[in-house]
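Complex 229.
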Amino acid sequence: MTGTSALVLFSGGQDSTTCLAWALSRFDRVETVGFDYGQRHRVELDARPALLAAIKAMRWKGTLGSDCVLPIDLFRAIGGTALTDDVAIAMAADGLPTTFVPARNLIFLNAAAALGYRRGISDLVGGMCETDFSGYPDCRDETIQATAKALSLGLARETRIHTPLMWIDKAATWKLAEDLGGKALVDLIIGGTVTCYNGDLTPHDWGRGCGTCPSCDLRAKGYDGYRAA
Ligand code: ZN
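Predicted structure with zinc ion bound:
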């Protein structure tokens, strides 16, 4: 195999769509992986095929290759989070929001690395971000890079995890999308992605969502910041 390749953890939300554009601007060949983990709202998963088709139609340095959705049903069995159960979005006793799915990013990265191993891809790209991350400890740079080290050891092959959003806020994520794909990509993110914790598809100038959950709030404020800059 010649050239560089990357596997993007692609959920169908704003962050992973921006990460996909980032990867396509840097790698020769890019594949995507999504996770069906029993999320209550499947609209993010449902949004993926149309987003991928639209991105494929745009011009990038790299080529967008195959997509794979892996089933991961253990989170539903474990339960207890607002994303998998009928639990209100609130602050829990552990100081984290009930939207925290313990170890989700760790399990996603391990699953993606296993798929990447089969595909001959050692570069993973994910939208984890420490800047406005709601305190999720599995989004921290230290966690991600320790995971990369564990994967490199466990697979006996150097595994790199790229997190282009790690140190930027939501306003800068919008700006990054514009820099990477111009207005066409920004418009696609507004009209095609879903990040809402309630799985709401009501259109707004900043994208689709309920407009009141923490995820919509973050996204809308980021968009305001981006437009004001
Ligand atoms: Zn929402």
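The chain has a mean pLDDT of 90.
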